[in-house]
Amino acid sequence: MALLSHGLTILGHGNPVQESSIVELKTIKEEIPFRAKRIQWGKHYPQVYFSQTQHLFVATHHQGLFHTVTKGRICDAGNVALTVGTKLGKLHDALKTIQEMVIETGLEGRLSLVSRNGELEAVERKDRSSCLPEDLLLRFFSREDVVN
Asked: Any idea what DSSP says for residue 107?
């Protein structure tokens, strides 16, 4: 069990499960009760994309009373997957590039993301001090690396 500085407790229990057994569960409130619902993939696709969860269950309630659970799979997203997925793919590529730059600069490197004329740039800072609190750095590095 690990207690993090922001009060979140992580319990290391359970057994590994197949990814095909994992579902993302969303709840939504509806104003007009008991209407048949289809999953609005435009709202939910980004979260499912990043979690890489194949199954989405959307539980619908009216005034706190749950009445419908709609089940879907990410492959059901159709055109939303094409349009939103393309944009998210570009974000994925940008994050991958940033990750590679961070790895290349190593423990001593200090990068900042800066917007110049609407373009995102990664620039190396001359100041070697970290902008992150120590408890966040310790998630990625040993105490010896953070202190030195």
From this structure: T
H-run or E-run covering 7: none
Q: Are strands 55-62 and 23-29 parallel, antiparallel or unpaired?
A: parallel
Question: What's the pTM value of the predicted model, to 2 decimals?
Answer: 0.60
DSSP letters, 69-80, are EEEEEGGGGTHH
Neighbours of 58 (CB within 10 A): 20
Domain positions in the chain: 2-105, 108-148
List the alpha helices (DSSP H) in the chain. 41-51, 79-105, 134-137, 143-147
* Closest listed residue to residue 24, CA positions, set 43, 48, 49: 48
Q: How far apart are CA 10 and CA 13, in angstroms?
A: 9
Closest by CA to 63, choosing from 29, 19, 88, 18, is 29
Structure confidence by residue, pLDDT tens digits, 76-123 = 888 888 888 888 888 889 899 988 988 888 777 888 889 999 988 888
- Please give the pLDDT value at position 71: 94
- As a whole number, the mean pLDDT across the chain is 83
Q: What three-state secondary structure class fits 57?
A: strand
